[in-house]
Amino acid sequence: MMITCFGKARISGKFRKRDSSSSSPPRNWTSKDDNTEEDGSKIIFFGGKNHSFDLDDLLSSSAQVLGKGAFGTTYKVTMDDMSAVVVKRLKEVVVGRREFEQQMEMIGMMRHENVAELKAYYYSKDDKLAVYSYYTQGSLFQMLHGNRGMYDRVPLDWDARLRIATGAARGLGKIHEGNNGRLIHGNIKSSNIFLDSQGHGCIGDIGLTTIMRSLPQRTCLSSGYHAPEITDTRRSTQSSDVYSFGVVLLELLTGKSPASPAITEAEHSGENMDLASWIRNVVAKDWTGEVFDMEIVSESGGGVEDEMVEMLQIGLACVGVKQQERPHIAQVVKLIQDIRSTE
Asked: Model confidence over 278-316: pLDDT tens digits?
């Protein structure tokens, strides 16, 4: 499959069924309800046959590059009826067809309001694809860091950030229930958390870590999201997921990107450090108020400051250096929901 990266593109090339003769039936997405023989070049669609597009629609639709990451390139594909999906073209898949399909089947069956839906997958020698729901509100990373300092920026208020944290925590809790309580996300970060139409956080890119090549050590060190043990083992666990989620909570509170070189102690020691280490350092010196994002510190009343301090304590618990010090995600969900009991 060839998808060009220059503005809008057309999807074409190898991403087709093998039988393209004029006598063959129309090419449609293969539904999970069909008994069609799996030959390696069919798209497997979850959720029955009630879909607003088919394979030909996808192939002929315009594609916009949303981003490139360690797991591949992500595209927004817009159909003629203006509906959209996200297509992720995976690179460096290290498992065979059977294991790939098993993992996709497990993820595709997962249904939860705070987990981004896997709509379909595709496996062939040349291409491995995952098709997800598209969220018009964009990612948490975009909402937190996009247009910083610009006059037209609309900042996220504290209520919005609390809704996002609550939804994302519930989503991660649901993910960890998968595969008989052994499913791991492995790549929790703000660019993989999306906002639904009600402004709640939804976690995407589920379950890809186990089928992809391990992230390079340099990536683990520089991202700011990975637990200390990951830089050595490069093997994710549910505990390391909790650590990464804790970093997201700290990112929500500070408005700082964990991967940003702006995370420094320049005003105190000139030492560069990651976001979690910087916050630990500030809090240890009893300067807690200095960590909060200036976009929300101006809010007053309703116990907002107290709620932010509670969230800070939860985030710091999640980023415990030792794995055994970190709470289980179920505990994290309860703690966040208890911040504001009406939630």
From this structure: 898 888 887 777 889 888 887 655 568 889 999 999 999
User: What is the number of domains present in the chain?
Assistant: 2
3-state secondary structure of 181: helix
Q: Given a cut of 70, is residue 144 above it in pLDDT?
A: yes
The residue range of the domain holding 56 is 9-133
The pTM assigned to this predicted structure is: 0.83
What CATH number does residue 284 fall under?
1.10.510.10
Dist. CA 53–CA 3, nearest whole Å: 19
DSSP, collapsed to helix, strand or coil, labels residue 51 as coil
Contact at 8 Å (CB) between 218 and 231?
no
Q: Is 6 exposed, middle or buried (0-12, 13-18, 19+ CB in 10 A)?
A: exposed
Q: What are phi and psi of 78, to 5 degrees?
A: -105, 125
Tell me the CA end-to-end span of the chain in Å, nearest whole number.
45
Q: How far apart are CA 73 and CA 28, in angstroms?
A: 24
Which band of pLDDT confidence, cut at 50, 70 and 90, is reported for residue 30?
very low
322 assigned binding-site residue: no
| Distance of alpha carbon 203 from alpha carbon 32, whole angstroms | 23
Burial of 50 (0-12, 13-18, 19+ CB in 10 A): exposed
Average per-residue pLDDT for the chain: 79
